Amino acid sequence: MRLEELSSRRVVLLGLGTDVRAAVSAIDAAGPAELAVVDDGPVVAESSDPGSASAGAGGGGPVDVVDLVEAAAWGEVFVRSPGFPRYQPVLLAALKRGSSMTTPLDLWMGTYGAGRTVVGITGTKGKSTVTDMVGALAGRAGLRVGVAGNLGVPVFDRGWDHAAPVVVLEVSSYQAADLHHVPDIAVVTSLAEDHLSWHGGLERYVADKLRLVRNESGTAGRVLVPAGGGRATAALASLGIEAEVVTPPGGPEGPGSVPRHRLQNSALAAAVLHDVGGPRLSADEVVDAARTSLPGRLDPCPGPQGVLCLDDALASNPSATAAGLAWVRAMDRPTVVLLGGADRGVDPSPLVQEVAQWAAGRLLAVELADNGRELAARCGITSIAACAAMDEAVRCAAASLSGDGVLIFSPGAPTPPGSGTWVTRSNAFRAALVAPR
Predict the structure, then answer these.
(1) Residues 307, 308, 309, 313: what is their CA dihedral angle, to the nearest 10 degrees?
(2) What pLDDT does 253 receive?
(3) What angle do CA 266, 272, 276 make, to 5 degrees?
């Protein structure tokens, strides 16, 4: 959908998350006949007028607040904040009657995507890393590239290069669910179970993710997947899409000094770099790029002397934790993993399979709320403690390790409601590691 298609139509903003708030001025300038918002967040709660909400950053005056039932009966176009629950019956009924659903990212791609190269990057895990790597590698190569999307900069925000001839967008499953345009290059880093309660099951989660690659507007011009892409490659093949498989240096396993999934991400980023006009990186350059990490993704941090401490707070599902532990296993060091978070009903099989490869007694767990106990038990990891607070969990883990051990916070589940974000837990973990004992 394009911004111009909002003209003279009744438009409802579903949520006032950062993506929508950044887009309000552009949406209002498109000339909708009426504009209202459905929101359950603090922006509305803090408003002095219970019947209106501030448009927030990006400008615009007060917007009428309506409840979801009223909006569904009244709206012609719904502009959804990415995390706003899409599959509610009243919304599905409105779509069946002929209303349209879009997101700020979809509006940006439809309005501004033509005439440049657009790269869309999605995946259960790895999308942030690949997006960040592409931006960094392109900058070093002297290419002008804009980076935005789920990574943290909303597409309608002023904080990125809108005029760049190449745009790299990180796309979450929430955003992909209402994409009506495809990029020139699509990257699918991985597919594993995640966000199942929001999407309503694995089948729909995969289908929503792959709208980045194919939807009613066509199929992405080029599709990249990593070697060993597993479910991603198979899911694309079921749609009749033959993806280009990108193999990292040294084959799918890669050098043991670098986590395999990070090396695969680096190889994907290098392939994108070359596709958008950059140089073809050597094997050594791909490996060097893989040595960098995003905060919260197998990120070494200071801690007790002799103990390798790894912040893997972004590992919010079992497959991500399994990938991190696979790398640690190759070190053959006693390891304690801090495990647990909100239970989203995700199949722990990838982590079960990884744990089965550890020698007896080499991997232990400290359970965190909410599902640490259940996750450890289902995966066969011996638990040494259950802790309500991060500082207590770190103390228990550190006390059980000798000087050559590994202490890794890799929760295998997202941050529980009311406990902040992954950054909150990452910061708590790092602070606990260096706190006086």
Answers:
(1) -150
(2) 59
(3) 145
Question: What pLDDT digit, counting tens, does each position of 56-114 carry?
Answer: 434 445 678 999 999 999 999 999 999 899 999 999 999 999 999 999 999 999 999 99
Q: Which two tokens stand for residue 364?
A: 């232990």
DSSP state at residue 357: T
Helix ranges restricted to H, 316-362: 318-329, 349-355
Secondary structure tally for the chain: helices H, strands E: 17, 20
Q: What does the alpha-carbon distance between residue 339 and residue 375 come to, in Å, rounded to a whole number?
A: 8
Residue 71 φ then ψ, to 5°: -60, -40
- 260-275 vs 318-329: helix crossing angle, rounded to 10: 110
Q: What is the per-residue burial (b if ≥16 Cβ within 10 Å, else e) of 380-405?
A: ebeeebbbeebeebbbbbbeebeeeb
- Which string of DSSP letters, residue by residue, matches 385-405? EE-SSHHHHHHHHHHT--TT-
Q: Considering Cα of 91, then 95, then 100, then 103, what sign does the dihedral take?
A: positive
Percent of the chain with pLDDT over 70: 93
Nearest one of 354, 361, 407, 401 to 379, comparing CA atoms: 354
Long-range Cβ contacts of 88-93 (<8 Å, 24+ apart): 91/14
End-to-end C-alpha distance for the chain, whole angstroms:
57
- Domains of the chain and any CATH numbers: 3-102 (3.40.50.720), 108-290 (3.40.1190.10), 299-434 (3.90.190.20)
DSSP letter at 240 equals: T
pLDDT, mean of residues 204-229: 93
Judge if pTM exceeds 0.70.
yes
Which amino acid does the sequence have at 147? V
Residue 228 banded pLDDT, cuts 50, 70, 90: confident
Reported as a single tens digit per residue, the pLDDT across 288-314 is: 998 877 788 888 999 999 999 999 998
What DSSP string runs through 124-192?
SSSHHHHHHHHHHHHHHTT--EEEEETTSS-TTSSSS-TT-SEEEEE--HHHHTT--S--SEEEE----
Q: Give the C-alpha separation, 124 to 343, whole Å.
A: 16
Assess contact for 35 and 64: CB atoms under 8 A.
yes
Q: Tell me the CB-side half-sphere exposure of residue 229, using CA atoms within 13 A.
A: 27
- Can you read off the two tokens belonging to residue 389? 């607070």
d(CA 427, CA 174): 26
What are the tokens at 252?
A: 């799918």
